[in-house]
Amino acid sequence: MLDESFLAATAELYYPGMGTENVAPLLYSLVRMLKPRSCLEVGLGYTTPFLARALCDNDREGACDRALLAAETLTPAQRERVATLARGHFEGAAPRPTRLCTVDNFALGDFSDHQVLRVLTATGTAHKVELVRADFAAALEGIAGDWLPLDLVWFDCGGLPDAIRFLNACWPRVAQQHGTVLLHYTHFRYVHRAPGGERETMLIDPLVSELKKRQALPGARFEVMSLLEPNKVHQSSVTMLRKLPPASCARRAGLQDEARDLFGLEVPPLAPLAPFAPFA
Length: 280
Ligand SMILES: C[S@@+](CC[C@H](N)C(=O)[O-])C[C@H]1O[C@@H](n2cnc3c(N)ncnc32)[C@H](O)[C@@H]1O
What we know:
The protein is α/β, with parallel strands linked by helices. Helices cover about 35% and strands about 20% of the residues. A hairpin with a 2-residue loop joins strand 6 (about 185-195) and strand 7.
């Protein structure tokens, strides 16, 4: 849980210029929701303990749910919880351990590994983290065995060339089953002339533009979405890529035919999603 004591212990890792004050809790929630086993972070700092804490909380939650599934008597609330659970998720061979590999070459020198380790220890999450002092290219080469595939990847370092190099090396190692990659700072401030003076807007960078084009191609096996913090012009964007297994890819059949075939429902047509809605 992100309680007061956790937030107090992690505050020393927060640098306003890094802009991860909202990304860190977002990463916590994503890990809590997506239940990744192998996580990779490039660029350690404030976000590191949030990722690690989420893995610890997932372990605790998993143990509670397993106990409920095995229990013979349940309270009404516990029965409701059990009804929501996917038994297949809890059955079978022992799953891979949940863990975070965090990579940094300490080029910026803002954090030391000792400082981050001290905070991880203070928050009881150090056992989840393997700290690798290396360039990300070398670190990716070293990720092998049951660290693979990577289920959740958070990349927070360098500029556009680094992001492209990273994605090239990392993508084959990302899980086809909903593996998720998050890239930080993917939009840039663009000032242009407009009637009445200058206007500024946040533009997607060339990598995100390319990803959007590829996402639209037939047979694309990933989806991409960005989140923007409208109150900031730097470090204000996150772009998420998510690999898609076949069951998550669009089908050829139309909406109304599918609703009838799958659910026996008659549904209205979906109106065109016009680019400029009157109330936008
Ligand atoms: C923006 S900071 C990370 C911020 C951190 N995620 C946070 O929430 O505070 C970027 C980090 O990436 C590291 N870095 C820069 N280039 C790198 C590279 N090629 N390989 C690994 N780490 C790198 C820097 O040393 C720096 O600590």
